[in-house]
Design brief:
mainly beta, 4-stranded antiparallel sheet, 10 strands
């Protein structure tokens, strides 16, 4: 699958870091660094614009190294970029650490994963089929 991209940043296009990588690293496109205080969030531009084929979406996901080393992660994860969106790709970052963190131009801030999307139609019924789980929800199987 090919995805058309416009790059208004000075950074190279996103690429897969290894042959087994699921996501492409995307970079901050900033004129000045962003200082994120603890629990502060920011919308970080990338300078990238995508033309995603119909039937697909792009997902913005956190980078594990940024999360463990600096406590920075993405909100609204995974963030969905719909096939018909043509605006700039921006990433919502939050600082979950107890120290101020800096995001600078060119920092790898998130990863981009492309997925096929199935469209469904909803059928209204009065009763759902039973399962062994039933309505057991959050933590219903315990933690051991």
């Amino acid at each position: 699958m090919k995805v058309r991209i416009v790059n208004h940043s000075t950074h190279p296009l996103p690429v897969y870091a290894t042959t087994g990588s699921s996501g492409m690293d995307i970079r901050a496109n900033l004129e000045t660094p962003i200082q994120l205080k603890p629990l502060q969030r920011a919308l970080v531009p990338t300078g990238l614009f995508l033309e995603i084929p119909h039937g697909y979406e792009a997902q913005v996901r956190p980078r594990s190294g940024l999360a463990i080393k600096q406590g920075i992660t993405c909100l609204n994860t995974p963030g969905t970029i719909d096939a018909d969106y043509r605006g700039e790709l921006k990433v919502i970052l939050i600082n979950l650490s107890d120290q101020e963190q800096s995001i600078t131009n060119g920092d790898r801030i998130a990863q981009l994963v492309f997925q096929q999307v199935e469209k469904v139609s909803l059928e209204v019924v009065d009763v759902l089929n039973e399962t062994e789980r039933g309505n057991g929800g959050f933590g219903h199987t315990g933690n051991k």
